[in-house]
C-alpha cells in the first residue's frame, strides 16, 4: 500500500512544510536519498509545549511530540520527492531536551520510530539515535531528523515551504 494511502487509512493528514527558523532548507534530495533538517513538533506554526523532558514535560508527552516532529519531517520529504517514492527509511535521529537526570531518550524517540513503521511497514524499520541535549531551538522538547531512500535518481533540490 502506498504511504499516502496508509496515512489516509490512519486518519493522518500531512501538515504544511514547517517554515525554517533560520538559514536552512527543510529537506534536500540528493540522488536517491532525502535528508531532512531537524524538525520541531510545530502544530499550525506553534510549539505545543516548551521545556525539558523529565522536568517540565513527561516522557509520554514528549513521545507524542516526537511523533509530530516526525510527521513534519514526512511533510518535508513529500515536498521534495513525494511520500509514495520512499522505498526505505534509513535513519532517524531524535534529540531530546533532557532534565539532568532524565535517561529515557529511547522511549521518547519511539514516537518518531513508530510513525515510520506505521506509515511504511517493514520499509520503515531504520537505524536510530536518541540523544539527550541541554536545550533545543525555541526551547522545543524534541527535534527529529530523518533520512530516507527514494525511487529514482532525482536531481538535487530543496524543499519549498508551502
Automatic annotation (TrEMBL):
It comes from the Bacteria. Coiled coil: none annotated. InterPro entries: Endoribo_LPSP/chorism_mut-like, RutC-like_sf. Residues 7-147 form the Endoribonuclease L-PSP/chorismate mutase-like domain. SUPFAM superfamilies: YjgF-like. This is Putative translation initiation inhibitor, yjgF family. It comes from Corynebacterium uterequi.
Amino acid at each position: 500500500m502506498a504511504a499516502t494511502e496508509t496515512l489516509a487509512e490512519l486518519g493522518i493528514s500531512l501538515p504544511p512544510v514547517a517554515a525554517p527558523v533560520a538559514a536552512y532548507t527543510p529537506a534536500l534530495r540528493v540522488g536517491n536519498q532525502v535528508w531532512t533538517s531537524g524538525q520541531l513538533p510545530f502544530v499550525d506554526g506553534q510549539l505545543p509545549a516548551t521545556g525539558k523532558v523529565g522536568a517540565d514535560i513527561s516522557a509520554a508527552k514528549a513521545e507524542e511530540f516526537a511523533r509530530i516532529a516526525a510527521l513534519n519531517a514526512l511533510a518535508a520529504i513529500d515536498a521534495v520527492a513525494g511520500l509514495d517514492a520512499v522505498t526505505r527509511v534509513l535513519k532517524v535521529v531524535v534529540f531530546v531536551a533532557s532534565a539532568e537526570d532524565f535517561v529515557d531518550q529511547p522511549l521518547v524517540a519511539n514516537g518518531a520510530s513508530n510513525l515510520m513503521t506505521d506509515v511504511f511497514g517493514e520499509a520503515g524499520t531504520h537505524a536510530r539515535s536518541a540523544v539527550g541535549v541541554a536545550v533545543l531551538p525555541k526551547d522545543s522538547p524534541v527535534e527529529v531528523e530523518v533520512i530516507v531512500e527514494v525511487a529514482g535518481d532525482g536531481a538535487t533540490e530543496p524543499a519549498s515551504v508551502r
